[in-house]
Design goal:
The structure holds two protein chains of two kinds. By secondary structure, chain A is mostly helical. Chain A is about 75% helix and about 0% strand. Chain A has helices spanning about 5-15, 15-35, 45, 55-60, 75-85, 100-135, 140-175, 175-210, 220-250, 265-270, 275-305, 305-330, 330-345, 345-355, 360-385, 395-410, 420-425, 435-440, 440-465, 480-500, 510, 515-535, 540-570, 575-600, 615-645, 665-700; strands at about 650, 655. By secondary structure, chain B is mainly alpha-helical. Helices cover about 50% and strands about 0% of the residues of chain B. The chains are: A mainly alpha, B mainly alpha. Chains A and B meet through helix 13, helix 14, helix 15, helix 16 and helix 17 of A and helix 1, helix 2 and helix 5 of B.
């Protein structure tokens, strides 16, 4: 059957879905093409957009608004007469819900909504990838797993939408003035958001319910995969839209900072922090989804009755952990970028974040991230027990363990230690050497890169565990050579292009000299990457990998630890370039080593099979721990991102004058985040239980 | 049961933890004293000691449970009647020492005593909004004027700030020892190099009394110089201070 006929048949069978989808897409398209709706600049004078009455905005406005929101100019006479009779209806600034703390209500609801949304947006990304892997590789178990992911997704989607509705009502009800301002600025994007939500809903349910229908032929499968891709596009679009509202609140742009008058919607939308938050959330959602799926698999593994079930959920847990840790590796880089942009948007907000009222929350963050890396590595090391042949590599575990824990210790050492008066007197100065050398960004960046390199090394030895004698690289044929050369080309492009661009950075002459060592470091790394490839071609790939790991550690960890201090002292503007250089060098090591490893062991003799299901129970508790930690981490980071605004709804523009505008203490924050985590995990467990009710019924009937 | 060496896994883990304790408690204070040229040891703060010890114990337990065999070997050390005399001997020492160590900890923590509370410090209290947009008026001037301002600032620094902050801005002024919390060493890259000019301006102008409520408990003896010094003098002092300490202020960055 050709593709055209298949397409027609699908449309015939699912005509309602298709019609609704087409309507929704057309509406989005037509709205987005109209001037001033999507990213077109809207001039306040033309559009008549004005802030709700707050100080200067109210005083300077020509079109005063009545409480009902109608223009007062035309109906002045009638309104006056009515007001005299009935009394003026005062605009409401804040409301309360049964006297409860409005800020806490919004905090809990928005965080729960965000957590569900993260899951709903993160899981489809890897569900589609797993489906493609299964389809291309012809392995049905991948397809089965991708479908199981999607089943969880469809159950969680309705909860996300309900929480989203609750959040919108809470915000409009409890903070009407603030939401009035947000609506004035972002109203056109809000309509687009609502319409895109239709797209998300239709593609999600279409993707899930058509799984078994769109099976059998290549064309059907590709159509199904396309639905999945579309689902991801809608989901990502939705997230990007809402991110612009949240980041506008942190770093407003496109509005007059005196009157709050909207000057350009496109600038307000594409504010300074928008893209860093987009990237950070996109990666974090995948990480979050991976660990949640891992925990789901762990629960199913622990309750599994048969060997087959255990094997399936063991494998699913492994994939969940792999996805989680795979996304966790670039996350610190994205987070660092976001942090720097927050400093750029406002050095004061930056100081509040890293050195001020929120600095201790970053110590908690460090502990949680450390636990994620340790938990993920621990799971991998335990997983080596189910692979015959892994004994050859288990000796490395003790060194990796020591390195990771030492890095963790440095990572969580604060610059300002809690000290008693006696300790202060004994130390005799403000900083103990441990905090002086371990507590600053140069040290943190160095150790986080070493943790990443160590975690990657754990992956390498895991995947080599059951591989025996290798086929010489020179006998691997064209595929291996093309693959390795492509990896080399990519790495060289990344390293050399950045090195060249560093020659042209605009800096004062007195600090520009601090960039030169970075350029040298990039060129040295480029040479080492070439050397590793050369050795691989000479059938000495392992030596190449060893040299690459060694040099990367020397440059990106040891040298940049020392050099970071120098730069902090003399030329802090160079720190930005140092961090990117550090990231580029580490990434080139990860990419090149992974590519060499894949092709070097491509035709290697398999010395033993992986016995899925043969995992100690504690490994499953490690997966559960990872899930709980990532949920706490998301709760904490949500608080930090939003709380950085201190007592501002929109930073520097619209002040929060409600009684709840204070910054919560760490203890209070801990209790609220704990409550959110408990609520989320409880809701997720309930929703997943609901999703599996159908399966139980089918099983019972089969029995 | 594993090989002969693995029978001692628990012993090695415990030995590593004890070694870590001794290193942090007795070795590192002396090492830092030598490395930093101090006239006294630099004891490891109790909070850090606790964190590092937790890390050490956790690392040992993680390693001991990375495979079923290791876990069996780890616990096997406690089983009677297996192994050599050395193992028997170490086992008995462990059985005697462990309750003693726990007892010692319980005793030392419950012993009545007087100690000041551990304080959670905030390094950079929140800068009030009105200072955020301020710019040092002399930073934009030409090089000659800037140099002149720096020299004037250095003289002012030596006049007004040296008694506490020291002639080299290293926190070693003649009065430094009289404070419970010594003045900060500005040469340290983690101090004034991490903040913008106007942050210092606020700290000089309003001093300890001007700190916001969230930074309490905060003990800063810095006086408020508002009224005693002109704003221009304060900006010049800031320039002179950075130059004296040999560091640069954090500079505003453009978003990419």
């Amino acid at each position: 059957m050709n593709n055209y006929k298949l397409f027609l048949k699908f449309i015939k069978q699912k005509s309602i879905f298709v019609m609704l989808l087409v309507i929704a897409l057309s509406a989005v398209l037509s709205l987005s093409l109209q001037k001033g709706v999507l990213l077109t600049a809207v001039h306040a004078e033309e559009a008549g957009v004005e802030l709700p009455a707050f100080e200067e905005g109210a005083a300077s406005g020509e079109q005063q608004q009545t409480a009902e929101g109608t223009s007062a100019a035309g109906a002045e006479g009638e309104a006056k007469a009515e007001e005299e009779e009935e009394g003026e209806l005062e605009p409401v600034q804040y409301r309360a819900f049964f006297g409860l703390d409005s800020r806490v209500i919004v905090w809990i609801v928005s965080e729960l909504h965000l957590m569900f949304a993260a899951f709903v947006l993160g899981v489809p990304i890897f569900a589609v990838i797993v489906e493609i892997v299964g389809f291309k590789g012809g392995d049905i178990k991948y397809d089965k797993m991708a479908k199981e992911f999607t089943k969880l997704l469809s159950a969680a989607f309705a909860t996300t939408a309900s929480l989203g509705g609750l959040l919108a009502f809470s915000l409009f009800g409890l903070y009407p003035e603030f939401m009035g301002h947000m609506t004035n600025v972002f109203a056109p994007t809000m309509y687009v958001y609502a319409l895109m939500f239709f797209g998300e809903a239709f593609t999600l349910y279409g993707y899930y319910y058509s799984w078994d229908i769109l099976k059998g032929t290549s064309a059907k499968k590709w159509f199904h995969i396309s639905l999945g891709v579309l689902l991801n596009l809608f989901g990502t679009g939705l997230m990007f839209l809402t991110n612009s509202w949240a980041t506008y609140m942190m770093g407003p742009s496109g509005v007059s900072m005196k009157t709050g008058r909207l000057l350009s919607l496109s600038e307000a939308f594409y504010n300074e922090l928008w893209m860093p938050v987009n990237i950070h959330r996109l990666i974090a959602n995948v990480c979050f989804g991976g660990f949640i799926v891992g925990a789901y698999a762990a629960v199913k593994f622990l309750g599994a009755k048969t060997k087959e079930e255990k094997a399936h959920y063991d494998w699913m847990g492994y994939v969940g952990n792999f996805i989680g840790i795979g996304a966790l590796i670039p996350l610190p880089f994205a987070g660092y970028w976001l942090g720097r942009e927050i400093y750029s948007a406002s050095p004061v907000m930056g100081n509040i974040m890293m050195g001020g009222a929120f600095s201790w929350t970053f110590i908690i963050q460090a502990i949680l991230i450390g636990m994620l890396f340790i938990g993920a590595n621990y799971y991998l090391w335990l997983g080596m027990g189910r692979i015959k042949g892994s004994e050859r590599y288990t000796g490395y575990i003790k060194y990796l363990n020591v390195i990771i824990f030492m890095c963790f210790a440095v990572w969580l050492t604060p610059h300002n230690l809690p000290l008693s008066g006696e300790e202060r007197a004994m130390i005799g100065e403000q900083y103990h050497p441990f905090s002086k050398y371990f507590g600053v960004m140069a040290a943190k960046n160095a150790v986080v890169n070493l943790i990443i390199l160590s975690t990657f090394f754990s992956f390498l030895i895991y995947r080599r565990s059951n591989k025996g004698t290798m086929v010489a690289f020179s006998e691997q044929g064209k595929v291996g050579k093309i693959g390795v050369l492509s990896g080399l080309g990519f790495c060289l492009m990344m390293l050399v292009s950045y090195a060249i661009s560093l020659n042209f950075v605009e800096l004062d002459a007195q600090i520009k000299g601090y960039v030169t060592p970075l350029i040298f470091a990039l060129y040295i790394q480029s040479l080492v990457v070439c050397l590793a490839v050369f050795l691989t071609f000479k059938n000495k790939g392992k030596l190449g990998q060893f040299i690459l790991f060694g040099v990367t550690t020397c440059i990106a960890v040891l040298y940049f630890w020392y050099y970071g201090f120098q730069v902090m002292q003399k030329a802090n503007l160079v720190l930005r370039y140092l961090s990117v250089t550090q990231v580029s060098i580490v990434m080139s090591c990860l990419i090149m080593n992974a590519v060499i490893d894949i092709f070097m062991f491509r035709k290697a003799k398999v010395v033993g099979e992986i016995t899925w299901g043969k995992m100690p129970v504690r490994s499953q508790y490690a997966l559960l721990l990872l899930c709980i930690v990532i949920v706490i981490l998301m709760g904490l980071m949500g608080f930090i991102r939003s709380g950085l605004r201190m007592d501002w709804h929109v930073y520097g523009l619209l002040q929060d004058t409600s009684q709840w505008a204070y910054t919560p203490t760490l203890s209070f924050m801990g209790r609220v985040v704990g409550l959110i985590v408990a609520l989320f995990l409880g809701l997720v467990a309930f929703v997943f239980w609901l999703a599996n009710l159908g399966d139980k019924k089918v099983k019972t009937e089969a029995e | 049961m594993g090989n002969k060496r693995s029978q001692y896994l628990m012993f090695w883990v415990v030995a590593a933890v004890i070694f870590l304790f001794f290193f942090l408690k007795y070795v590192s204070p002396v090492v830092f004293q030598v490395l930093m040229g101090k006239g006294h040891p630099m004891p490891t703060p109790s909070t850090l000691m606790m964190w590092y010890m937790i890390m050490g114990i956790l690392a040992g337990l993680v390693y001991a449970t990375t495979s079923n065999q290791k876990f069996v070997d780890f616990l096997g050390f406690l089983l009677p009647g297996q192994g050599t005399f050395l193992k028997f001997f170490l086992q008995k020492i462990f059985f005697i020492a462990f309750p003693l160590v726990v007892g010692w900890f319980v005793y030392s923590y419950s012993l009545p005593g007087a100690a000041s509370p551990v304080e959670l410090r905030i390094q950079h209290p929140t800068l009030p909004q009105k200072y955020e947009k301020m710019e040092n008026p002399f930073r934009e001037k030409d090089a000659d004027i800037q140099r002149k301002c720096i020299e004037e600032g250095k003289v002012l620094f030596q006049t007004y700030c040296r008694p506490c902050h020291g002639s080299k801005a290293d926190g070693n002024g003649p009065f430094a020892n009289s404070f419970r919390l010594r003045p900060i060493n500005f040469q340290d890259p983690g101090t004034i190099a991490t903040v913008v000019d106007n942050y210092l301006f606020w700290r000089i102008k309003e001093g300890g009394p001007g700190l916001p409520s969230e930074s309490t408990p905060w003990d800063s003896a810095m006086p408020a110089w508002d009224g005693d010094l002109e704003d221009e003098q304060m900006w010049k002092i800031i320039m002179g201070e950075y130059d004296t300490a040999g560091v640069m202020p954090r500079q505003r960055e453009k978003a990419e």
